[in-house]
Amino acid sequence: MDPMSTPPTADAALLLRALQHLRPTLPLLTEVGELFTAAGHELALVGGPVRDAFLGRPSPDLDFTTSARPDEIEQVLAGWADTTWDVGRDFGTIGARRGDRTLEITTYRADAYDEDSRKPVVAFGDNLEDDLVRRDFTVNAMALRLPDLTFTDPHDGLGDLARRALRTPHTPEVSFSDDPLRMMRAARFAAQLGLVPAPEVLAAMTGMASRLAIVSAERVREELVKLVLGADPRAGLEVMVDTGLADQVLPELPALRLEVDEHHRHKDVYEHSLTVLDQAIALEDPPLPDDAGAGDTRAQAPAEQDPSEEDRVPGPDLVLRLAALLHDIGKPATRRFEPGGGVSFHHHELVGARMTRSRLKALRFDKETVRAVSRLVELHLRFHGYGSGEWTDSAVRRYVTDAGPLLGRLHKLTRSDSTTRNRRKAARLAATYDHLEERIERLRTEEELRAVRPELDGNQIGEVLGIPPGPLLGRAYKHLLAVRLDQGPLGEDGARRELLRWWARQPESQASATD
User: Any coiled-coil ranges, and where (predicted)?
Assistant: First the structure.
């Protein structure tokens, strides 16, 4: 069979498979379809749930389109749904819950942007075919009429799905003008579903990339997050860079293309960064059955767990993936040509951390994600000072303490940052990092390194020195912490003696004695 064509018999087989995938929800689909039909309205399952049924993928929500207006939708659902909500009423959408299933039912509609507007202007339609032609891509313009389960596919979305092609029902220019965010969605589907934008789609994206500027940062961020968490982020990022979308959303990424990485002359920094991302994804841990929120878009502090599990990074992990992608974005700003033809990027990790923080804030990421990703970028070169194992135990403790709850991600980021083709060098780097991790585990076992803190808390320090809470007490605490990191456990008596030795050298102590 030619993979580029989908004959009618294949269509029938695919439809049967999709219906089998939907089997658990068919009673609900039939029931809600009969409700709307009895009230004189049309109803169809549409978009993502239909597409995902053909792909055999789970679809958490059920999306419907209907001839009913929002008030009429509420009337039909009254007494049937456990609860409804109308936060999407302005866009024609009413949400509902029936048992453990969530439904979103939207009036036939068309979305369009004014030239300088960030919000779509909604116009209600009166038939399914007009609604489908206004949808973003043909693979999302397939519908299942209810309750009779009639498959409707006026734009050959099923054929495109079989060909892994991404096309628009209308001309791409009209589709992207209606909602410029659809260009980001095209890149996201490349990463998430393995769909390849058709040449005319890529051409329209390239010509209209600047139009993305009218879309709110929050909506752009959500598409970027879904792309980065997809099965193949590289594919989506390459679409963004090649079409100019990245210049609007993440300009630091295409800026890497012309920079030469001094450690890997066979790759520019752009290719190196994408490879590091691929390798970081490969190192993500599988989620445990009790892992809650795996793949959440927010940074999560790991809960208390066994030492063997505390550094796990269940995938897909947004923080690790963003850090891998952005870890070298400080290189263009720090590139220096050295005598003899060498190239250096001194302190690019510090510059990159500041750039990362600025870019993620501009995209309206939450504070914890901004903090976590920028911190990983800042720390990603720390391991290179380890040499062949010359660090003291004090330096190892500081490495762990500085990474804090990000240590598991830092382990994977550091390992991923080796993209050398020299197998002997790669093996040596891996063995050296193995050695560092073994030392960390030994110190954890001996010293409970996860919770390194002085043996005296703030109250005890205040009692020993006779000082109130404030900056002076904070200095004393930091000194004891530094000693703890340098020397290991001191015990309370040893910490008290060290605190008094430190206090005797402080000007405040001398002033107190004079008084």
Answer: none
**Residues 335, 408: one domain?**
yes
pLDDT digits (tens, 9 = 90+) for 85-116: 998 888 899 999 999 999 999 999 865 556 66
Q: 487 CB contacts (<8 Å, ≥6 apart)?
A: 394
Cβ contacts of 22 within 8 Å, gap of 6 or more: 29, 49, 53, 144
Q: Cα dihedral sign for 443, 448, 451, 453? A: negative
Which of 300, 277, 291 is CA-nearest to residue 229? 277
Q: How confident is the model at residue 315 (pLDDT cuts 50, 70, 90)?
A: very high
* Residue 266 forms part of a structural domain: no
* Residue 131, C-beta contacts closer than 8 angstroms, at least 6 positions apart: 46, 65, 108, 109, 110, 125
Tokens in use for 485? Answer: 């990191």
- Taking the model in full, what pTM does it have? 0.80
Q: Looking at residue 120, what is its pLDDT?
A: 60
Find the domain containing 472 and state its range: 458-514
Domain check: are 399 and 503 in the same one?
Answer: no
My answer on whether 446 and 334 are in the same domain is yes
Classify residue 325: in a domain, yes or no. Answer: yes
